[in-house]
Write a structure and sequence with these properties.
Blueprint: H1 3-22, E1 26-27, H2 33-41, E2 50-54, E3 64-68, E4 82-89, H3 100-108, E5 117-122, E6 126-132, H4 136-142, E7 145-146, E8 149-155, E9 167-174, H5 179-187, H6 191-199, E10 203-205, E11 208-209, E12 222-225, E13 229-239, E14 245-252
Helix pairs in contact: 5-6
Length: about 250
Amino acid sequence: MDKDDQLFVNHLRDLADLCYQRGIPVYTDFLNLHEQTVFLAKMPEFSHVRIRLDGGYEEAERKIVCFLPVYEEEADRERLPIVPLKISSSAGKFTVPCTHRDYLGAVLNLGIERGKIGDFLVGDGYAYVLCTKNMADFLMNSLTSVKRNPVICRIVPFSELTGQVSYRELTGSLASLRMDSLLALFMKSSRTAAVSCLDGERVFVNGRLCVSHGAVPREGDIISVRGAGKFVFDGVLSSTKKGRLMVKIRIYG
């Protein structure tokens, strides 16, 4: 564990102790996948409080850690300090298409720290963004354009996020069910390139770092490759007479 990770763990301990001593819910900012991996490795240290990891919707990648008093019932999502905002273009038919990077760049250019912002769900002429509660008013008042589009921001209910995640399906055959083979299929690359991602600590399975070339994915696993995207492993469909496995994945976006 490097110095930055140790400082991060010390911060988590301080938050958990504050929750325990004062009997109040305490929350982190949005954590990236590496931070979540560090936290999950240290979870046994936080047995004196209750823990919830949430990003505002089921498939969220960036999540906050909620430290809750042991006697308190688990908080509903609506009670968490996460606010869903919808960023909508007001340019009508003149709307210029925008990507995830365009929306993220526009928000960060306002001077907001990355940890205050969760995932973006991008649609046609709009995007949903999850943010910490103390950033919602600032975003609604300050974000006026994305790319060349004038935009309006408003708070929406969490239920509006349901069904906003889009996928495209991909099937392919593998010689064996190994992580490096599955990544090569997803990235449409060689196993050597997939191994490089694993060795470079760029692969996360359900938020946990994965470096094992031969790790066996389980059906339903959400696998993220930093810089390449993420996908859901939907399992083995069939096997051929030569022993190859036909698998299906669903790629986000």
